[in-house]
Design a protein that fits this description.
The protein has 11 helices and 18 strands. By secondary structure, the chain is of the alpha/beta class. Helix 3 crosses helix 4 (135-143) and helix 6 (158-179) crosses helix 7. The protein is globular.
Length: 432
């Protein structure tokens, strides 16, 4: 079984959908695994011949090639929106996508979304630049002890689910709204107190949960597939723990963490990590952006048809890459984070309830720009570091160059710099 993680190198919108779709279309018996965030993703896939274009939110990018999708338990599905996406997908491709989910995946509710939107309105000029899809509020509600899993939702009657949601509103939502500064003048206040909103949500999600097949995704079940492709939402610089850009972050792990843990629990390891970037940097939402420029200052770069201006994230912003050191640093940092996982995480496999003990023997080698750490461990799942790739999309826009603050760099030069760090750089033209 080959295991691959596709990860955004920057702030998202790098071309992860294209990468996942190309992998899924070329690798036999693949499974796409959604493992972070929820309905906020917008991964665009286009037919190489230009016959169709589809934006994937929760359906795995590659499903158009009849490749199934699995929602891992770290994914927070939005069942209210899922039905619309499945309908659009079916109309476009002529068949319904195959969607699996782990039973304990946490459901995003309509009140999570409304709290998220209301909070952004309340922040005024200090908006975080959220997608407005309720991910942070889903995390907070679950942490407070008011979670609902997919299995629970599927087994509840409509009446029981409505009662549960009303109870959460009474005991939690009102208190949370006050903390977020959502008061009667806020346009989302009334909806957070409107029972019809909950009733409509219940009707929709009880119907849409039927789209999913709930499974115990243990190692035996996964072994039905030859390739596991982890499709990651957003990008490394938006990771919940990357404090440099706080508070303009997402509420999930956006790098190697979730795939590594998922596999380790099943006695498997991640073999390849593919980090995706454009020849320049984009950011949709508020927050710092080094070397920011107007799109007109990036020769050849055209309008982005997916990331159009919207109320929640504003316009798509552009920047040059800062330096070669900064270009590779997020990837190396993400790779090295497996050392911390190896030392700190107590992994219990689905095959055995016993905790796997770890002993480390760490070797370090130094390059001109970074300390490269090679890890060895007796723990299944972390016994080796994955091969690292950087996949550069949209090079055709820039004449096979990458735009840096101090001047443009040919793709071939980037390849050589990557090789010195143990990273293979790949052009999107190689995958066409």
């Amino acid at each position: 079984m080959r295991t691959i993680a596709v990860i955004g190198k920057n702030f998202g919108d790098e071309g992860k959908g294209f990468a996942c779709s190309r992998l899924a279309s070329s690798l036999k018996k693949s499974l796409i695994i959604k493992h972070n965030g929820g309905g906020q993703a917008g991964h665009t896939v286009e037919d190489p011949e230009g016959k169709w274009r589809f934006i994937h939110h929760q359906i795995g990018a590659g499903a158009e090639y009849h490749v199934p999708t699995l929602f891992a338990d770290s994914f927070m599905p939005d069942l209210f929106q899922l039905g619309k996406e499945v309908k659009a997908f079916t109309e476009r491709f002529g068949f319904q996508p195959i969607l699996y989910s782990e039973k304990n995946a946490r459901v995003t509710t309509i009140d999570d979304v409304l709290l998220n939107m209301g909070a952004e309105v309340a922040r005024g000029k200090n908006r975080h630049g959220s997608c407005g899809m309720g991910i942070e509020e889903c995390v907070q509600r679950n942490a407070a002890g008011y979670g609902i899993t997919l299995e629970e939702l599927a087994t509840m009657t409509k009446q029981d689910l409505l009662h549960r949601l009303k109870q959460i509103r009474k005991e939690y939502t009102g208190r949370r709204a006050k903390i977020l500064g959502i008061y009667p003048l806020n346009p989302y206040y009334e909806m957070l107190n409107n029972e019809t909103v909950l009733e409509n949500f219940v009707e929709e999600v009880k119907e849409n949960v039927k789209i999913l097949t709930l499974v115990d995704a243990d190692r035996k079940w996964l072994e039905e597939f030859q390739h596991l492709i982890f499709e990651t939402g957003q990008g490394l610089l938006l990771d919940q723990d990357y404090e440099v850009y706080a508070p303009h972050l997402t509420s999930s792990k956006t790098g190697i963490h979730n795939p590594a843990i998922f596999l380790a629990k099943r006695g498997l390891s991640l073999e390849e990590a593919i980090y995706v970037t454009r020849p320049y940097v984009t950011r949709h939402g508020n927050g710092p952006l080094s070397c920011e420029v107007d799109r007109s200052e990036l020769p050849g770069v055209g309008e982005d048809l997916t990331n159009q201006p919207n109320e929640w994230q504003g316009i798509l912003r552009y920047a040059r890459h800062k330096s070669l050191k900064d270009f590779f640093e997020p990837v190396l940092r993400d790779r090295d984070s497996l050392n911390d996982l190896d030392r700190k995480e107590q992994i219990k496999t689905k095959e055995s309830p016993e905790t796997i003990e770890t002993t480390d023997a760490v070797e370090t080698t130094e390059t001109t720009e970074h300390i490269v750490v090679t890890m060895r461990s007796t723990r299944p799942g972390f016994s080796k570091l994955p091969k690292l790739f950087i996949f550069i999309t949209q090079l055709s826009e820039t004449g096979n160059q990458l735009y840096f603050d101090k001047g443009n760099i040919p793709f071939e030069s980037l390849q050589k710099a990557g090789e010195e760090l143990g990273i293979q750089c790949i052009s999107d033209t190689e995958w066409r």
